[in-house]
Amino acid sequence: MLHFKYLTPLMKFRTKAPCRAQLNSVVAATVNKPDHVTFVNHRLVLLPTSFMKMPRFLCMTYVTRSQPLTSASTAAKTSQNITIDPHPKEMEEEKTKFETGHEGKKIKGRVVLMKKNVLDLNDFKASVLDRVHELLGKAVSLRLISSVKGDPGFQGKLGNPAYLEDWITTITPLTAGESAFKVTFDWEDEIGVPGAFLIINNHHTEFFLKTVTLEDVPGEGRVHFVCNSWVYPAEKYTKDRVFFVNKTFLPSETPLPLQKYREEELVHLRGDGKGELQEWDRVYDYAYYNDLGNPDKGPKYARPTLGGSSKYPYPRRGRTGRPATETDSNSESRLPLLMSLNIYVPRDERFGHLKLSDFLAYALKSIAQFIRPELEALFDKTPNEFDSFEDVLKLYEGGIPLPEGLLKDIGDNIPAEMLKEIFRTDSAQLLRFPMPQVIKEDKSAWRTDEEFAREMLAGVNPVNIRRLQEFPPASKLDPKVYGDQTSTITEQDIGNTMDGLTVDEAFKQNKLFILDHHDALMPYLRRINSTSNKIYASRTILFLKSDGTLKPLVIELSLPHPDGDRFGRISKVYTPSEEGVEGSIWQLAKAYVAVNDSGYHQLISHWLNTHAVCEPVVIATNRQLSVVHPIYKLLHPHFRDTMNINAFARQILINAGGVLETTVFPARYAMEMSSVVYKDWVFTEQAFPEDLIKRGVAIKDANSPHGLRLLIEDYPYAVDGIEIWFAIKTWVEDCCSFYYKTDDIIQKDTELQSWWKELVEEGHGDKKDEPWWPKMQTREDLVETCTIIIWTASALHAAVNFGQYPYAGYLPNRPTISRKFMPEKGTPEYKELESSPDTVFLKTITAQLQTVLGIALIEILSRHSTDEVYLGQRDTPEWTADTEPLKAFDKFGKKLAEIEDRITSMNNDEKLKNRVGPVKVPYTLLFPTSEGLTGRGIPNSVSI
């Protein structure tokens, strides 16, 4: 029996374990009065001042730990009558020496993890409690699982527990990241090569387990485990955590002793569909979007459930299990705003500490939603209006100083986690923003027709323009409901502006293109325009010039017929003009188009077509594919942070009264509108070549690179996107071909078939009966499916997200709201337009407060975090032990580097006018790597 040389007992507890409240109170005393008390082995003890001259945590020189608990169930249930005995490791060594006469074979290991006190920067209490638990004998233990020898239950034989060494004496600085610990396993020949291990955290606090590496394993050498997972205290789990070696196994190839562990892990991740999920739960499950509204606040905040109906179909989101609202049993209750960071997603899907720090730092600039009255008081002689374009520029060139009282209000209203980030912002002037690229070189070039058209090919929303294939443009809206919605544009409107070509000749030469928002918006205009917003449904026809640029020919602005929908529309047509009041009207017409395009971009191109459609893939993959499955390893990097950013979006962005409803013209109808558009979503058309062909901007051509010929040769998004798409597809083909030599293997892969079935029938359940879903019977099906998923999560999202601040950070270029209709002749508004066109323009588009909110939002969304992982990169180089996939991935990275060089070269080619344009902003949105607020870089996933 060992003794505490310097510890004086003050009082004794009963033999039962101390409760957490007792531990917490003692730790608090330890922290507040470090030379008085601590708690060891159920006894309150006094630490003399001389003892405290040592390192602030107890050293194992003076204290030896008692027997650690050995399983999650034991941790939760066993009575803890603990004595001060030698550490089990020492006892086992003595036993081995006694029985064999010599020390047994040992396997050395290295465990890399990140402690919670590091990730939370200053969670000192967690660090103290973990050390107390070590003293109580509650260590972190690991047990190897054999991949060759099974127990009577056909599960891999377990080795003896081994414990992380020197936890107490390893003091991690608060600024440090990883900590490395030694672990020593007793080698048993019958265990053979380990294929997995169990880990039990008997500490008070969770930690992030990164890797475990074993050296000199007999018959194998080095064995490596990539974990990258949070491990919570054992009492939080119903089963011990298991991690598998970084090898890849199809279900049929899994070593027999590991099969049960593989199957049971997936069952655990699926959960039972019951109850509210907690942060330590690892459950991936589905739910409808029934948490956007808050009917308990009143009818104004009620929103329809999206998903589960033919009226409002939608992809599924992750389940949280929160209770229903009091008012509506079909609506899920919401967290209070200040609890937004606590919204449930599986812990391994949450932002890493660097990403969260960056996110919080820049999120401070959007705290205006808490403090609108104070912000409004800051604005000058015309509240909530910019008086001139120079007034707008103050947001970037000088900033709006915030008074002291306002800063206090910020502190009273933002989550505590944000407080430690407040000094990471640019300065106390929270309303000072970086200069957007679109006005950095030239403050007025954005107003030109050339730039207006170029941004349809190389701006933030280059995914909607299509070739005009009928004239006049027709509508697909039901004429029985909406009457005649055919365009009123005539040949006379455009006939003299096409370099001498007739409309028919321009058609035959593929020279006419259209940006058409008419059908998507018309059904909602009557409701939207009953609010303070005044919106048109627009059609814009453009002509492809001989130099490869586009020029706008005509803009049609339409409204619902005042006598009712079945009477059709009333439309007006506007043509280009540069001088006088007609020039001002043309500028307004382009602004109304930009408003349409901004809303459609944010709700459809960005949110629906990347964020929303990707989340079911994340859920299905974690529920049905083991971490050792090759398709899991292929796709997993492309899921990083997606569930977390989507959960934040539901909480503060796309919810009723959230930032998106405040700053984008559809307002309360925004998400409903995206649901209607989802009715026409087709998975196979998300393949980039299919998208280009469907929009008529490309045709199949066996003589062209990749068998595809662009009809707008200088279409930067398409040119770069084609190269990225086929680079991804080649990598996917190489990877899939290694594991699936024949189609028969795909058909017999039980996990793969379950994954695809669930993704179709559950994840996109409202579309499960569509005939276009791939059947997942061939390698071609698998390759195309995985390429679509990776393309959508990486390149497509990058193209529609990271250009937001460069182009839309200056709101006059991409206004999100229009508040007035076009001035009519004979009205005071028309007269004001003649005398003060800039004033009328600024009064028409997004107001001052909404501009600030919108800019703050897109600045956050357009930034790369400091720990971003880009396309062609992995967060660990040892993500698989298979040589051929590693070589193929290296080839993929080199191909992307070649594409980067090619993009740079094209951006320097003056003949390619659409790559830079009048605003002198090179097209770099599909440049694979970058950092910060640069308008470039393709992250692996929908991560912001």
From TrEMBL:
Transmembrane segments annotated in the record for this chain: none
The protein's annotated pathway: Lipid metabolism; oxylipin biosynthesis
Pfam family, one: PLAT
GO terms classed as biological process: fatty acid biosynthetic process; lipid oxidation; oxylipin biosynthetic process
GO molecular function terms listed in the Swiss-Prot or TrEMBL record: iron ion binding; oxidoreductase activity, acting on single donors with incorporation of molecular oxygen, incorporation of two atoms of oxygen
Domain (PLAT): residue spans on this chain: 122-245
Organism: Prunus persica
CDD domains given in the database record: PLAT_LH2
Region (Disordered): 299-331
InterPro entries registered for this protein in UniProt: LipOase (IPR000907), LipOase_C (IPR013819), LipOase_C_sf (IPR036226), LipOase_CS (IPR020834), LipOase_Fe_BS (IPR020833), LipOase_plant (IPR001246), Lipoxy_PLAT/LH2 (IPR042057), Lipoxygenase_dom_3 (IPR027433)
Similarity comment: Belongs to the lipoxygenase family.
E.C. numbers: 1.13.11.-
Protein name per its UniProtKB record: Lipoxygenase
Cell compartments where the protein resides: Cytoplasm
Metal-binding among keywords: yes
Keywords, alphabetical: Cytoplasm, Dioxygenase, Fatty acid biosynthesis, Fatty acid metabolism, Iron, Lipid biosynthesis, Lipid metabolism, Metal-binding, Oxidoreductase, Oxylipin biosynthesis
Primary role: Plant lipoxygenase may be involved in a number of diverse aspects of plant physiology including growth and development, pest resistance, and senescence or responses to wounding.
Cofactor or coenzyme needed: Fe cation
Major site of localization recorded for this protein: cytoplasm
Lipoxygenase domain ranges (all copies): 248-944
A GO CC annotation given for this chain: cytoplasm
